[in-house]
Every structure is written in C-alpha cells, then in structure tokens.
Amino acid sequence: MLKLRDGIVELYKKVATSLPPDIEESLKSALSTEVEGSTGRLSLSFILDNIRLARETVRPICQDTGVPVFFLKVPVGLSQIELKDTILDATRIATAKVPLRPNAVDVISGKNSGDNTGEGFPVIYFEESPGSTLTIDLMLKGGGSENVGQLYKLPIEDLKARRDLEGVRTCVLDAVVKAQGRGCPPYILGIGIGASKDQVTKLAKEQLMRKLNDKNRVEELADLEERLLREINELGVGPQGLGGRTTALGVKLGVNHRHPASYFVDVSVSCWANRRGRLIW
Amino acid sequence: MVRPVRVPMSDEDVLALKAGDVVTISGIIVTGRDRIHQYLFDRRASNKDIPFDLSGKILYHCGPVVKKLDGGYTVIAAGPTTSMRVEMFEALILREYRIRGVMGKGGMGERTMQALKENCCVYFHTIGGAAVYLADRIEKTLGVWKVDEFGPTEAMWLFEVKNFPAIVTMDSYGNNIHRDIENMSLNKFAELIGK
C-alpha cells in the first residue's frame, strides 16, 4: 500500500498542476473564435499562459485546489478500509508537498484541519468491479464552480419546464444564466437525471470525468449534448462572464431510471480548470 | 490600451477609471475573503487593531496558497475568489475603512454598486483560475493579520504587487459590465426557451 500511497500523491500533483490536454486544446481553439481585442480573448490568453506556467513550474493551476473527489473501481477482494486509509495518508502528504490549499473546515468549530482530511473529506466513491486492476479517478473540484451548481425537480411551471428532455434543456440553460461569470467560465457541465437526489448529484459529477470528445452512446442524449453546447454559447456570458462566444467547452449528460413521481435533474458546473486524472494500478 | 493604476489610490485615480478599462495594478493591496469580511462587519475592528492601514488600498477577494519559509512567506498561487459571497458586508467595509478598490471575480450586487458610487470606489475583475500567473505579480509579502486564528486561506495578507492585471467592470459612475452581460443573456435565454 506504500507504493500505492506514493502513486496517489503523484496523481494529486499531476491533477493539481497540469490541465488535461483535451481541455487545454479546447481553450486554445476558443481563443481563436473570440474577437480580437475583446475581454473574452484577453481572459483566455491569461488562462492559457497560466496553464503553461503552472505545468512548467509544477504549481497548482488555481489556488483553490478544491474538494478532492475520488471514484474507485476496486477489484474483488481488495479492502476498502485499507484503500481509504491509503487515500487519507496520500492526501496529508500531498497537501504539504504539492502544496494543496487546506480546504477542510469543521462545520461546528470553523477550524481548518490543515491537511485536507476530515469527516467525509475527501469524497470517496467505491465500486467493486471485475478484473484485477484498481482504477482511481481523481477530480479536484473548486468551490466557486461547485457553488453555482443547481438541483431541479421537474416540472417547473415558472420555466415552463416539463418532465422530458426539453425540460432538461431548459434547466441546464437556466443554471448557466444563473451562474453568469461567478464560477469561472468557460464551463464544463455535467448533468445527472434520475429518481433520487443523492444519485443524480453523483451521476452529474461522474459526467465531468468524461473527455470532451467522448460522445454519448445514447443518440438522443448525444444530440442534446451538442445542442446545449451550441445554445449555451449563444447566451453570450463568455469567458470569465465578461461577454463573448465561449461560455462552455462541453456538456455531458447521464441518466438513471426515474420514479413515476420524480424527475430530478442535477447540473454540476466545473470551471475551465476541470482538473481530472486517472491512476491504474 | 492598458492603463497603469498605482495604489494607494486617490479620488482622482478612481474617477479616471471607467468600466471596460484594462489595467495593471502596482503598489500595496490587502486580501480578505469570507471570514475577514464577517469579522470586520461584526466587530468593526479599529485601525489600531489591524496592523496595517487600509485607506486608499485595494481589497482583494483571495485565499492564496502560501508556503512558510524561514525568512517569511512565499505565495505559490493567488487567484480571485467569487466576490458575491461577501455582498452583504462589502458596502459597510469599504465605507468604514476607506477602501478605494475592490477586486475579485464575477462582480457584486446592487448594494455594493451603490456604495462604489457613494464612496468613490471601483471594482476590478481579475482572471479566475489564473493563480500562478497572478502570484508571480506579487513582489513581496509585507504582512499578515489573523493567520493564527483564521488560517492562511482566510487571513488578511498585505502584498506588494507589480503589473497585476485586471479589468474595471464596475466603476464609480454606476456602469456595471456584469449586470449588462446578465441582462443580455437573460434576453437570449427567454428567446431560446420561447418565454
């Protein structure tokens, strides 16, 4: 487990300091679509300089190194208790070594634990899986973009949003309009649809782990992802919320079966710094 | 054209700035986020309690990553945090402490907008997430307040910055780029969903 611990420390370092190439490429192409001399274009050029500088100097891309969220696929027989302890150890080491900003705050005392560990912190999801490889996905989820996420319960009369994919579309557009520039656009949006609140919020987060070019296997959802991306970019919120053509880089939908009475839609928003990475063991 | 801004700022300096101006800031700024705002609002800490003078300064909404070294502190990453969270405190704070500039990301609400007009003050938006680039524009850490009680993220840091980039998005005349963009996007939204 010691080698695994060091592997997770390295994963933290990589995820905090270097942005996935698909997102960097997407930001580069966004820059060329923004008008010369506009604040949108200026913002993107600062962002791209920052990404390069963070990678070269091995420093965190953003000072908010977020809530670490782990998705584990665990082979049969590997202890989840030991894995959790290993992740906690790696988190303490990474916080001092990378360094990460200590973000775990005790709700009662207001005290920061200082090492990014605490009750339910980091967030860890385990799933047993066939085969012999352990897959560890890590996302560092910034607080600013997490705060602009929204949970919807369809139908919503005010928005004329019914219990269908058109209603989902309205919710996603509404979430972006409400977020404006407060969560650091261009955004990546993960949407989860289903029967229970806890399940859709996790499902929405999982969508943020998908690569930007990952096409939905369900045709109707793939079409809606494409349409939403186009429409969100027509809203004109723009990079940093200061206006422009690029408000989002990607929209990803995930669905579960729902209850006849319930139609929950969770919109999870990631800032442009969608820091995600994978360790295969 | 990029306009240089020197801190501390005078009334004339503030009045010369208009929404849309791209600036580079040089001089002394202080940080403060959720806990500092709540503390200043509740306790009205006097200038004697705070180890540095805030008048004429820029209050930067930022919780940096800092590393403690033998000779002091090094700032590793220092981008802005969302300003809207301190909306309920800001109007009083910038009046009480004679702040001339507020800096963060995403803009602020009507109450702060009004306070900017009344107190000759301006709001700068700087680039969210550009934490390393911005940290490299901090030349020196001159002091810190409340670091033991609040921790390094929530403490008030006194920084000397040089050529720190920002955009004036809310000026002292009532112009507000965030509000304009919001209205425009709301119209587009209504059009898209056929309301």
Short description:
Chain A has 281 residues and is of the alpha/beta class.
Task: Using brief descriptors, characterize the structure shown.
heterodimer, A: 281 residues, alpha/beta, four-stranded mixed beta sheet, 8 helices, 40% helix, 20% strand, B: 195 residues, five-stranded mixed β-barrel, two-stranded antiparallel ribbon, 7 helices, 9 strands, 33% helix
Q: What is the element string of chain A, with H for helices and E for strands? A: HHHEHEEHEHEHHEEE
What about the largest sheet of chain B? 5 strands, mixed, barrel
Spatial arrangement of strands, main beta sheet of chain B? 2-3-6-7-9
Largest sheet of chain A: 4 strands, mixed
**SSE string of chain B, helices as H and strands as E:** EHEHEEEHEHEHEHEH
Q: Main sheet of chain A: which strands, in order across? A: 2-1-3-8
Outline the low-pLDDT stretches of chain A.
none
Helix content of chain A: 40-55%
Tell me the structural class of chain A: alpha/beta
Unreliable spans of chain B: none
Specify Rg of chain B, calculated over alpha carbons: 17 Å
Shape of chain B: globular
Query: Can you give the mean pLDDT of chain B?
Result: 95
Q: What average pLDDT do the residues of chain A reach?
A: 97
How many helices of chain A? The count is: 8
Spatial gap, N to C terminus of chain B: 40 Å
Question: What's the helix count of chain B?
Answer: 7
Proportion in β-strands of chain A: 15-25%
Major interchain interface with per-chain residue totals:
A-B, 54 and 50 residues
Beta-strand percentage range of chain B: 25-35%
Strand element count of chain B: 9
Describe the structure.
The complex is a heterodimer of chains A (281) and B (195). With 281 residues, chain A is α/β, with parallel strands linked by helices. Chain A contains 8 helices and 8 strands. In chain A, helix 1 (2-17) packs across helix 4, helix 2 packs antiparallel against helix 3 and helix 6 (165-179) packs parallel to helix 8. The termini of chain A are close together. In chain B, 33% of the residues lie in helices and 31% in strands. In chain B, a hairpin with a 2-residue loop joins strand 4 (65-69) and strand 5 (72-77). The model of chain B has no long low-confidence stretch (mean pLDDT 95). By secondary structure, chain B is an alpha/beta fold. Chain B has helices at residues 11-15, 34-43, 87-96, 110-119, 131-135, 147-154, 177-193; strands at residues 2-7, 22-31, 58-60, 65-69, 72-77, 101-104, 122-125, 138-145, 156-170. Chains A and B meet through helix 3, helix 5 and helix 6 of A and helix 5, helix 6, strand 9 and helix 7 of B.
